[in-house]
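2024-03-11 09:14:02 DEBUG pipeline.ingest accepted 1 chain
2024-03-11 09:14:02 DEBUG pipeline.ingest length=123
2024-03-11 09:14:03 DEBUG pipeline.predict start
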Amino acid sequence: MAKATVVRADTVESTGCPTGNPKTGFTNARATFYSTGLGACGQVNNDSDFIVALNSAQFGSGYPGPQCGKKIKITYKGKSATATITDECPGCSYAGLDMSPGLFSHFASQDVGAIYVDWKFTG
């Protein structure tokens, strides 16, 4: 399988396909950030909250979605954080996450735009 690379500032990150499953977790999942507010789970959040919007394929259908309120553990370059699923990300690919600015900044500068993380459901 071919892999592309993205070069940002002084970092190089893989953009290969994410791997994994809901039981064991996912590796190499693309994570971006967005401005929070009223999410698809019906909650209003702030940019400083540790929350994520989950890709539509995994978010599920109905209101609120079946993943709403679930916790995930995200790891990037030795740092970890727990976040709550409060929104849906229609533009994210499978295993992809859209993070609150505060959560994204916990891992990297917003200047990089996207990072590739490992994550798993915690409960």
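2024-03-11 09:14:41 DEBUG pipeline.report The two ends are 33 Å apart (CA to CA).
2024-03-11 09:14:41 DEBUG pipeline.predict end
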